[in-house]
């Protein structure tokens, strides 16, 4: 090979390598100089948020490699929880993790967020209802109508009472001032419960001062995690729902600015959050009932609790009458629960 040809090849190789390096590094340099920034607020306080949201956000920020960063804020840090939807719609915040009910979503299906009485028995019911029974498409439709991007739903823990005095009958519920979710509160009011709304971080003090007699906001895992076990002492094993249903949402404009590969990454991180909660709650609920030392377990007899379950079905009928879409959701719940009952064990034991 002559000298001129060798020089030509050398320059071509070096030039090509430099061009390839620039092509690879350019997006990263650009991302480093101007990453996408999101502010996400969760319904959960810091101790609870460390489990239900922080691992997913941390994973996303690491994997996004400087192209995007999600700043995480806990309950009421930027806006009060009941104002989350309005703040999200306006773009004051970019994303939310909450249930529809608590954040005041102006959609007819918001009643089903959080704890809709007796709609679910186990945490796995929630993803099956969304992914296999059509709730996903219904939620997408409802939030598209109000200009917010609904992203993903998953299950949390069941809804039990944690109280300062033992509950062993429906009579014992009467007059109890309880921190709970809006829909759950309206339902429980039928049995003499007085629902109380407070900022999440004020609940522990309210239990200590006597402003609250208890909470109907979670299972036993959260009672311990949020510091409520010390302020109550009694845990009612009957529940009005087998799993809290919550979702991730985004401001539509904020979502539109995210490139497809980061949208996919955030979807994977939301899925990882749903997966983490499945085993964290499932294992925690059993372990703390058996090994926990701060709460005594109590129960209302099955024949008496059947009154509450029957009232729950009446409530379903009332909600089904609100709109064509709420009827569609209630019909799905009925079909799903009938299927589970017919399937028998381990899907249903009664």
Topology:
Elements: H1 3-33, E1 36-42, H2 46-52, H3 54-63, E2 68-73, H4 84-90, E3 95-98, H5 125-132, H6 135-145, E4 148-155, E5 159-163, E6 177-180, H7 182-188, E7 194-196, H8 203-209, E8 214-218, H9 220-225, H10 228-231, E9 234-241, E10 245-251, H11 252-256, H12 260-291, E11 296-298, H13 302-320, H14 324-343
Parallel strand pairs: 1-2, 1-3, 6-7, 6-8, 9-11
Antiparallel strand pairs: 3-10, 4-10, 5-8, 5-9
Task: Describe, in plain words, how this protein is organized in 3D.
The protein is α/β, with parallel strands linked by helices. 50% of the residues lie in helices and 17% in strands. It contains 14 helices and 11 strands. The chain has a 6-stranded mixed beta sheet. The chain has a 5-stranded mixed beta sheet with strand order 2-1-3-10-4. Strand 6, helix 7 and strand 7 (194-196) form a beta-alpha-beta unit. Helix 3 (54-63) packs antiparallel against helix 12 and helix 13 (302-320) packs antiparallel against helix 14 (324-343). The protein is globular and about 60 Å long. It starts with a helix and ends in a 7-residue tail after the last helix. 41% of the residues are buried. Mean pLDDT is 92; it is low at 8-31.
Strand order in the sheet with the most strands: 7-6-8-5-9-11
Helix content: 40-55%
Could you tell me the strand content as a percent range? 15-25%
Separate helix tally:
14
Overall form = globular
Compute the separation of the termini in Å: 86 Å
Please report the total strand number as a whole number: 11
């Amino acid at each position: 090979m002559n000298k001129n040809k060798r020089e030509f090849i050398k320059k071509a190789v070096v030039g090509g390598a430099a061009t390839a390096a620039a092509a690879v590094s350019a997006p990263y340099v650009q991302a480093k100089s101007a990453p996408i920034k999101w502010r996400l607020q969760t319904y959960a306080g810091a101790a609870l948020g460390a489990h239900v949201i922080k691992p997913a956000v941390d994973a996303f920020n690491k994997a996004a490699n400087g192209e995007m960063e999600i700043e995480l804020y806990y309950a009421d840090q930027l806006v009060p929880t009941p104002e989350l939807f309005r703040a999200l719609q306006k773009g004051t915040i970019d994303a939310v993790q909450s249930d529809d009910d608590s954040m005041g979503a102006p959609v007819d299906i918001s009643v089903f967020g959080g704890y809709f009485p007796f709609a679910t028995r186990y945490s796995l019911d929630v993803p099956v209802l969304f992914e296999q029974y059509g709730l996903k498409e219904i939620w997408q439709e409802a939030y598209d109508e109000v200009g917010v991007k609904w992203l993903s739903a998953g299950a949390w823990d069941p809804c039990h009472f944690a109280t300062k005095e033992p509950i062993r009958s429906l009579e014992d519920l009467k007059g109890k001032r309880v921190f709970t979710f809006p829909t759950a509160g309206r339902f429980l009011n039928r049995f003499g419960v007085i629902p109380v709304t407070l900022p999440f971080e004020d609940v522990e003090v309210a239990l200590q001062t006597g402003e609250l007699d208890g909470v109907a906001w979670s299972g036993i895992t959260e009672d311990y995690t949020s510091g409520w076990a010390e302020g109550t002492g009694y845990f009612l094993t009957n529940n009005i729902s087998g799993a809290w249903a919550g979702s991730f949402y985004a401001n539509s404009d904020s979502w539109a600015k995210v490139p497809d590969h980061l949208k996919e990454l955030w979807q994977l991180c939301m899925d990882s959050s749903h997966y983490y909660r499945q085993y964290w709650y499932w294992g925690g609920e059993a372990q703390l009932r058996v090994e926990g030392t701060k709460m005594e377990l109590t129960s209302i007899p099955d024949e008496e609790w059947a009154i509450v379950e029957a009232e729950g079905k009446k409530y379903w009928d009332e909600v089904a009458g609100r709109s064509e879409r709420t009827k569609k959701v209630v019909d799905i719940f009925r079909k799903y629960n009938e299927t589970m009952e017919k399937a028998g064990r381990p899907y249903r034991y009664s």
